[in-house]
Amino acid sequence: MTSVLVDSNIFLDMFQGGPGSHWSRGNLVREGSAGALVVNPVIWSEISVRFPTEADLAQSLAGLTVHKAQIPFEAAFAAGKAHLAYRQNGGTRERTLPDFLIGAHAQVAGHRLLTRDATRYRSYFPGLDIIAPDTHP
Questions:
Q1: Which residues of the chain have pLDDT under 70?
Q2: Domain range holding 43?
């Protein structure tokens, strides 16, 4: 079975609507019917801001089978190395960016990544299988 780590922007599109929401919703449903949808604590944290309680967040995902997965230590290490490369390339953020934890988790665990914003992931995780609007219209 194919597993897909779902970036927070996909869920936020689903909750908020907007220009990317049709693409995000369609691909979320398609990938969910083909394999496992996965979130990690970073993604859960980023999408939590839309809901007053965790139960409300869980209820909003009730129509989907979403698996919660922890970020492996190996992925945390890889995220730190990606962040170091980002800083060496002129990036200004001093703390590890959530995207690095998400990308490293997907890569280490062998998940594909469903995202609407693939640029940073492609730059720092070139071997990652990414499902994005420019490659999966």
A1: 1
A2: 4-131
